[in-house]
Amino acid sequence: LEGMVRSLSLFGEAQLGVEEIADAQQDIIQEPAILRYFYEVRMLEYSAETAAHRNRQAIEVIQRHGVEGAAAPMLAELYECLDIQALAKRIYLDMGQAQIIAESIYGLQQLAQQHEFTVGQLHQWMTQADAFIDRGVCYVPSAGSTRRPAHVLSLLCAAQAKGTEFAHVFLPFLAQGEFPRVQQPTINEENLFYVACTRAQQSLTLFVPQEEREHSPFVQQLQVAASQAPAREQLHWLQQRLERLQRAAQAPQASGPSTATRGSEGQLREPSPDRAGGAIGRAAATKSSSTGVQRIYLQVPFAEKDEAKALGAYWDPQARLWYIPPGVPTGPLLQRWPRSAPKN
Questions:
Q1: Could you give the angle at the alpha carbon of 75 between the alpha carbons of 4 and 140, nearest 5°?
Q2: How are beta strands 200-206 and 268-269 bridged, if at all?
Q3: What's the angle, vertex CA 255, arms to CA 251 and CA 258, rounded to 5?
Q4: pTM for the full model?
Q5: What is the pLDDT of residues 116-174, one digit of tens each?
Q6: Which end of the chain is more exposed for a tag (fewer CB within 10 A), N or C?
Q7: Helix H segments across 183-265?
């Protein structure tokens, strides 16, 4: 009931103050019959004439369709008489926020149409969705929350996700005009997109419109289709490397020199690629210490170092550059970053 009173006051443009809304909420919780008085007096008599006219029309639409009527056409008529787009712009000063609100409300109509809900069924679905969150299955961070419960679905904005990690991340609303928002600096939105994508530990799912031209420019820049083949190649190489390491760990330790060393706890470790060429000196930093093969150095920005590392690149602390070690597919890395020569 609290949410209903707040929504009626907001979208019915009842022009009530915060304290008046709070008082009305408490009164209606104690006696639900007062809700009719709230509508007839606050939303009709005390509202502006145009707002009162829209509210009367809205109630007539709902009464005409009834509980058993189809929800989608009822919502279409309701949105038309309330003029949702203009209403959202009057309520929210931020035009971007107003657009989000309007599109979310229209999304409710699409949901009702897709599932062929009646008005009663749509109300039941929304009640169950609220209960889903109230039971703690979903976690919505608030100002007072300090710890995220385990094994729940967390609903966060990209900015709220900074410093967190999740096994699986689902990133919706990746459409033109939604992400990035037109009113915000592109660099800020780009940073938020990077934050959101890099929260995933195991999988990242991006939700985009069916039409490719409507995709967010951030998604278009990823060139997912073009990256699939190099990504599969890189994954295949990583799987082979893991298998070799597992076989080496299971094999008896050789008596002679080995390319792998055992740590203090007896765990098999690969030699560090960054240290392998450390004794060669800066003058010969572009050569591998063991094979003499020319290293391929890359010009990788600091913000993209994790991506380079994930694709198999290693850091050369002497040259202060990332390079492609032997055995790593060069295609994915060279497509992403240009070559760079080490400084003498």
A1: 45
A2: unpaired
A3: 70
A4: 0.49
A5: 999 999 989 988 887 776 665 555 555 555 555 566 777 788 888 888 888 899 998 89
A6: C
A7: 186-197, 217-222, 224-250
